[in-house]
């Protein structure tokens, strides 16, 4: 069975685009955000776990769309209903065995997945590694200012708030997304310390955006996949992925809504902001925390 | 720190977030926070939910307005006696004609879909009746 590839990064780090691009490789299968390793038993994905932040039904859309596509070859409401039955039949299975079943079904294609929620807790990444000891891990980084700005622009910074990325001031608490940027990346680094070097790679998202053929080729060589011009050309079309659009009404998401509305890739040079300026999401003119600056420098920013 | 494959150990670089615990559940570890900070956190969550609800309502209002707009647009074709007004601008008439054509196409598509469903259910009904007639108890 082909070992899967997991993209590890906090949300809004080019993960959707990268996942869809790599998934378009002729020897790969790009999955939507399955979020399976957020829980231990499949049915737990159906249990609401937060009253603080509202509904979390979207976390199930990825697995429903994936099952519909893999087993029914289409993503219609009927196929999603079948996927719900498929999941119900496995409700007491461990997510590891469910995931292994999906990977076996698409074998020999290499499963490619990213669920940014895996990076909020080392336990989740550890569970992936236990289920797939030969898996490859691609650590995708993005400049903290770009990533945090993007997080704050999506649903009022829901992600940052959901992971308690909060700063306490004298008379109020404010959402401060750089804690999440730092701690998610620290979780990834701590986890990757336990993974052999040949099973991991780090790529800066900004570099990928400016010269994708070069970096996609490098990743393919590392994965042992074809890296000829035709394979690279296929990967330049993430919009061709069956998951690069909204799903049927009962499983609309399974990915970043911005990506779902515009999945086409246009190479561009990303302007990398300085690390020592006030950050745009703060009203008090403060900048990045020293720990964030230090980690960003470690990533080459 | 835990140990995984080939004796390699997980790192222990420190995190900087002010709250520990399972980050996306209802059970973040708030022990390190003072009661005042907990209050501030709750206020922040309340504010977030209120903003979310406000945005939702704004969106719904936009839809309602869109429906009203359609009604307003149709009004130009008719006066209080149900007759077209003498001075309707040409642009409005063309726009209205296009809108009506679009709606007609939409209703036609709906009709075709409903007729297909009707046909299918009639076939099922006929088959069921046929089976009932042929059964020995029938």
Secondary-structure map with pairings?
The complex is a heterodimer of chains A (about 300) and B (about 140).
Chain A: E1 5-8, H1 15-23, E2 28-30, H2 58-72, H3 77-89, H4 95-106, E3 110-113, H5 122-131, E4 136-141, H6 144-153, H7 158-162, E5 166-168, E6 173-175, H8 177-192, E7 200-204, H9 205-210, H10 212-223, H11 229-235, H12 257-261, H13 290-298
Parallel strand pairs in A: 1-3, 1-4, 2-3, 4-7
Antiparallel strand pairs in A: 5-6
Helix pairs in contact in A: 2-3, 4-5, 6-8
Chain B: E1 20-21, E2 28-29, H1 35-75, H2 90-134
Antiparallel strand pairs in B: 1-2
Distance linking N and C termini of chain B: 74 Å
CATH class of chain A: Alpha Beta
Number of domains of chain B: 2
In the CATH scheme, what's the topology name of chain A? Rossmann fold
Question: How much strand of chain B?
Answer: under 5%
The main sheet of chain A comes to: 5 strands, parallel
CA radius of gyration of chain A: 19 Å
What is the number of E strands of chain B? 2
What is the string of SSEs of chain B from the N terminus onward?
EEHH
Helix content estimate of chain B: 55-70%
Estimate what percentage of residues of chain A fall within beta strands: 5-15%
Class derived from helix and strand content of chain A: alpha/beta
Question: Treating each run of at least 4 consecutive H or I residues as one helix, how many helices of chain A?
Answer: 13
Radius of gyration of chain B: 32 Å
If strands are numbered along the chain, what order do they take across the biggest sheet of chain B? 1-2
